[in-house]
Amino acid sequence: MGKLNPEEVKLLIKTAQISREHGITKGANVKEICGKAGVSRKTGYKWVNETDTSKEEEGKFPYGSWITFRELTGGASRYVHFQQRCEKPLKRIADTYTDLFKNMLEIFDGKQIVSNIDSDISIVLYPLPLFPIMVCY
Questions:
Q1: How distant, in Å, are the alpha carbons of 88, 98, 101, 113, 122 from that of 117?
Q2: Does a structural domain hold residue 61?
C-alpha cells in the first residue's frame, strides 16, 4: 500500500467528521450507513458509482466551506446585479410557483442541508457536474 494523496486524506478526514456528526460508529458497515441515510444498500452503491464516474471527468470535487456570492473575487461589486437577475427571480418562483420550484429541486437533485450561512432553509442543487450551488432563504 502506498501513501495517501491529498484528496484521499481530505476525503477520509471529512468522512470521520460526518460520521461523528451523524453518530455513525467506527467500522460501520454499508447497511448501517445506508440505514442512517434512509436508503437501500443498492442506492448507496449507486451513489458511490455515480461519484466515481464524475471523478473520472476533468476537475476536482469541491471541498471546504460554502461562501456567498459576495465573497467570490469581484463578487461584492457584482452583487447588486446578481441579486436583481438571479436571487429575486428565483425567490419569486419559489414563493409564487411552489410546485414548479419543487420540480426544479428534484431535477437538479436538490438536498436540504445545514449550512454555515445564516438562513431558514439551505438547499444544494447540482446543475452541472462538480458545480454545486447552495440556495438559502
A1: 18, 23, 21, 11, 8
A2: no
Condensed to tens digits (0 to 9), the pLDDT of residues 4-56 reads 888 888 888 888 888 888 888 888 888 888 888 888 888 888 887 775 544 45
Q: What are phi and psi of 100, to 5 degrees?
A: -65, -40
Same domain, 90 and 31: no
Q: Total structural domains in the chain?
A: 2
67 and 132 Cβ atoms separated by less than 8 Å: no
30 grid coordinates: 454499508
- How many Å is the maximal CA-CA distance in the chain? 56
In a domain, 1, yes or no: no
Residue 79: partners with Cβ closer than 8 Å, 6 or more residues away: 69, 70
Does one domain contain both 80 and 28? no
Domain span at 37: 6-56
Q: What is the pLDDT of residues 54-81, one digit of tens each?
A: 445 566 777 778 888 889 999 999 999 9
Residues 73 and 123 placed together within one structural domain of the fold: yes
Q: What is the pTM of this model?
A: 0.51
